[in-house]
Write a structure and sequence with these properties.
By secondary structure, the protein is an alpha+beta fold. The protein is built from ten helices and 22 strands. The chain has a single domain (2-262, 267-360), classed as FAD/NAD(P)-binding domain (3-Layer(bba) Sandwich). Strand 7 and strand 8 (97-101) form a beta hairpin.
């Protein structure tokens, strides 16, 4: 039987960032993921044939706040991201518009767009430099056995005993399920479609979002000035996923009101379900949930990764403080400190996303008028604009 101090289930960016934050703590950390180790994608130039684009970029993209980016750069080196300096929010069913720029907060940028797989590889390469963090890829957990001072975790390959079990394994968390932690969940009858597109006009390092009759559409700027990552949250997902490349390109061009000119090409698409769910508790003795394992929100504001990274940051701080004080890292005193710090933020963000999701998906003329007026009022108010920008970038 292997032994470790901290066992992290989930090798996504939240789990990896958490593991990286402990690499100098003196604790033995083990990361398990049922998927394969992320592989570096080809660096050859993009190609396009008619409307079919081969960008060599995986469609899983995240928009990170300044705070999240600073945390990542504090635990890693030479991380790659595309800074964006401007954000525009438009109501495609009316005239409402809201725009922000970095200069309003005396910042160089509002945040960074990152390719999840590329960031994961960079974090792994940074972690490899330490001697106390270990990985098991293509490994799935099967059983949990609760001990007085930790857990025994049985996988399809080995058995590991740990003082602290960390569930960072996403919205379908196996850790949460095996530990019988209750959660509440509600759906929106929507799915998210993600892809990379090539545009006629340059994106100008601007993140854009439209609320349209087909759902919420975001264009996120990538390092290539004419490539954007798109996220379309829609109830028409089946119909749209069956469209050919030309039809989808023209649909996206129409929904984005031609702001970036013609859509010349679209890469392969992925689809994911949209829901909000929240664990009743994030912790129990010797066990803790972080990221999507603890909570998921509607992607319309792109805050999911940021909340998860804030979880990783707070939990690592609580653990390192416990080590300095000689307190067991799996005791409830330590883990409740993490929960009491993070729970209010995740709950309030979930509530706000619920209001936005319901309000901007409504076809009621009165609600459409209210949201148009609301966007325009905030646009004309310097104070409220600064408050919103700070919430989105400096949380």
């Amino acid at each position: 039987m292997e032994r470790t101090d901290v066992l992290v289930i989930g090798g996504g960016i939240v789990g990896l960032a958490f593991a990286a934050s402990l690499k100098s703590s003196g604790l033995i950390v083990t990361v398990i993921d049922r998927g394969s180790k992320p592989q570096r994608t080809s660096s050859v130039p993009k190609k396009r044939k008619n409307w079919t684009l081969d960008s060599h970029i995986h469609p899983r993209i995240s928009a990170l706040s300044i705070s999240a980016w600073q945390f990542l750069n504090g635990v890693g080196e030479s991380l790659t991201g595309t800074p964006y300096t401007r954000m525009e929010v438009l109501d495609g069913e009316g005239t409402g518009k809201l725009s922000f720029c970095a200069e309003q907060l005396a910042l160089e940028q509002l945040g960074y767009i990152v390719e999840n797989d590329k960031l994961s590889i960079e974090l792994i390469n940074n972690i490899k430099k330490s001697k106390n963090v270990f990985f098991y890829w293509d490994t799935e957990i099967k059983e949990l056995e609760k001990l007085e001072d930790g857990y025994v975790v049985k996988t399809d390959k080995n058995v590991i005993c740990t003082k602290l079990l960390v569930g960072a394994d996403g919205s379908q968390s196996k850790v949460r399920k095996l530990a019988n932690l209750n959660y509440c969940k509600w759906t929106y009858n929507q799915k998210g479609i993600v892809a990379v597109v090539e545009t006629e006009l340059q994106h100008g390092r601007t993140a854009r979002q439209w609320f349209t009759s087909r759902g919420t559409l975001a264009f996120l700027p990538l390092s290539d000035k004419n490539l954007c990552s798109i996220v379309l949250s829609t109830s028409d997902y089946d119909e749209i996923m069956l469209m050919d490349d030309e039809s989808i390109a023209k649909l996206l061009e129409n929904l984005s009101e031609g702001v970036l000119g013609k859509i010349f090409g679209i890469d392969y698409r992925l689809v994911f379900p949209i829901s909000q769910q929240h664990s009743v508790r994030y912790v129990e003795k010797n066990l803790v949930l972080i990221g999507d394992a603890a909570h998921t929100i509607h992607p319309l504001a792109g805050q999911g990764a940021n909340i998860g990274l804030a979880d990783a940051k707070q939990l690592s701080q609580s653990i390192k403080q416990a080590c300095l004080k000689g307190i067991p890292i799996g005791c409830l005193e330590v883990l409740n400190q993490y929960q009491s710090s993070r729970r209010p933020d995740s709950l309030s963000t979930a509530a706000l996303m619920e209001v936005f999701a319901r309000g901007f998906s409504s076809s009621n003329p009165a609600i459409q008028w209210l949201r148009n007026e609301g966007l325009n009022k905030v646009e004309s108010s310097g104070f409220f604009k600064k408050v919103i920008v700070k919430l989105a970038t400096l949380r």
